[in-house]
Design goal:
The protein is of the alpha+beta class. Helices cover 51% and strands 8% of the residues. The model has no long low-confidence stretch (mean pLDDT 94).
Amino acid sequence: MIRLLEFHRSPNCAKIRIALNYKGIPFEMEEVSAADRSPMLRAVNWPLVPVILDGEVTMRDSEAILHYLESNYRESPSLTPKDQDEIRRGEALTRDVQHSLRPIMRKIYGEVMKTPEQRDPRALAGIVDQIAGAIEPLEEALAGKDFLLGERISMYDILLACALMPARPRPDYAAQSPMWAFFGKHLAIPESLPNVIAWVDRVLAYDAEPAAAR
């Protein structure tokens, strides 16, 4: 069974849980501590999560893990579109939105990592409008569709929806974590983007604990 080393509230770890759940691959989770990186260092000589251990195979980096699951669990539902034109559309949309969104998210994470006294209120002025501008192409792409490329979830949905988790914070995360409480206070996907809101919720609905952990 796959073992996932994770910080449970990490969007990068959520990507892997969503993929494993969608594909129906049994797994177990091991919550690790930010203060003790030794489990990841022992597994892959790398201090960050997610990390998976699959028999003799160890993998790090969320996108590399997604590709590993696609390549090695072919009997399970695929996250890769069969049509090459759809793959090109998914790649282009993901690249363009990530290019616009990443500088905004870096600014957000830069502020949240400071102490409350060090934070600059001006740094996040207009941040919700900036997020809206970055993800506007998703609203159009999702018109009349459940997912970015049609009726079936793909890797592109996972990558982009999880990147937007801080702008759609779960109430339980906000209650558990000062970082996520900060996100809940300062970030949001605007109500003017209803397709995006419904789609993020639809993708994140696959983020559940494996049966063995319930």
